[in-house]
Amino acid sequence: MNAKPCTNCIKTINFTLKSKNYRLKKLCYSDEHGEICVYSDD
């Protein structure tokens, strides 16, 4: 698992995917306690 992405990373991911007509449904990452979290852009 990866660390939580920063705000700039999320913006870059969304911009890049949008330019390719893709959409981010969810992004999984682990927090500082090792718990798995899900970021969804709904």
How many separate structural domains?
Answer: 1
Spatial extent as radius of gyration: 11 Å
Helix content: 25-40%
Strand content: 15-25%
On the 0 to 100 scale, the average pLDDT is 85
Strand order of the largest sheet: 1-2
Uncertain spans, ≥5 residues at pLDDT below 50? none
Order of helices and strands: HEE
How many DSSP helices? 1
Give the distance, in angstroms, between the N- and C-terminal Cα atoms.
22 Å
Query: Mind summarizing the main beta sheet?
Result: 2 strands, antiparallel
Describe the protein.
The chain has 42 residues and is an alpha+beta fold. The protein has one domain (7-40). It has one helix at 7-19, and strands spanning 26-30, 36-40. It has a two-stranded antiparallel ribbon. The radius of gyration is 11 Å and the shape is elongated. The model has no long low-confidence stretch (mean pLDDT 85).
